[in-house]
Amino acid sequence: xxxxxRPASDPLIAHLYVIAQLEQxxxxxxxxxxxxxxxxxxxxxxxxxxxxxxxxxxxxxxxxTVAVRMPNHRVAYHLLRLADVPIVAPSANLFSRxxxxxxxxxxxDLGGRVPLILDAGPTxxxxxxxxxxxxxxxxxxxxxxxxxxxxxxxVAPQVQYSPKYAAMAGETMATPxxxxxxxxxxxxxxxxxxxxxxxxxRKAMRLAAQERIAAGQSVGLxxxxxxEVHFADTGALxxxxxxxxxxxxxxxxxxxxxxxxEHRGVDVIITRTFERHGLGLAIADRLIRATEGxxxxxxxxxxxxxxxxxxxxxx
Length: 315
Fold this sequence. Notes:
Layout: E1 13-15, H1 22-25, H2 31-40, E2 45-50, E3 65-69, H3 74-83, E4 87-89, H4 103-110, E5 130-133, E6 140-143, H5 149-155, E7 160-161, E8 190-196, H6 198-214, E9 219-223, E10 237-240, H7 247-263, E11 268-272, H8 280-290, E12 294-298, E13 307-311
Parallel strand pairs: 1-3, 2-5, 6-7, 8-11, 8-12, 9-10, 9-11
Antiparallel strand pairs: 1-4, 2-3, 5-6, 12-13
């Protein structure tokens, strides 16, 4: 908590290397938990379950639930197996910053704050795990992530998702899962997020880049490969994430792209959402939180530039 600057109201995730360890974490394992674990563990799925009495309160932010998952990585597996007890840990970055996807990102944030960084190579998925709450009457996604809702519903058809954005209100209001605060995954640059039809969004992004550059700001564009040609003459710094049809690639590159533009010294990052299916739902969630919920919706109005800012955190 001290190294990250993480508030006590943000719970942690317990990590296992074998499903049988669930019994050390929770006193009630519903059939759905076994089914989902058998289908998707090891993998990017975190389950929220009733916690055992021996789980420290700072693990769960004082709540009666605990989040638990089994990572799908050989280094994590061997570390957890050597420990032979569940390991509770957050992501290795400063609180509210873009998540690290390489050891260099960890060093950038936590160098001098932690005694050791274990370099196991870049992450495969990029975005964090999907968090599914099994303590509610209907299984509910608290944080979309690396396991798409479509795959979850193949095992648990009743899974539901409605975006929720928690305000940062001190350490007394706990969230049931990490990654639910409205300000999260934020680089040290302003982020402008555009939503709408592709052509209208490109036009609005281009205009925004030109306006900011004219005002003397350094502008970075975080875009799909197909977008790059539309901004080549703007004078903005461009980082591409991959093809807009390859959402797994965009998810894998998202945080690294943010950090790359940040390191290049931009004042503002201009980006857009992509299709909201598969990993696109998690990508949109991370981008919305990077803007603290302020989204610029682009419509088909002809009487102005069609830009309208909405606050997702107040919806």
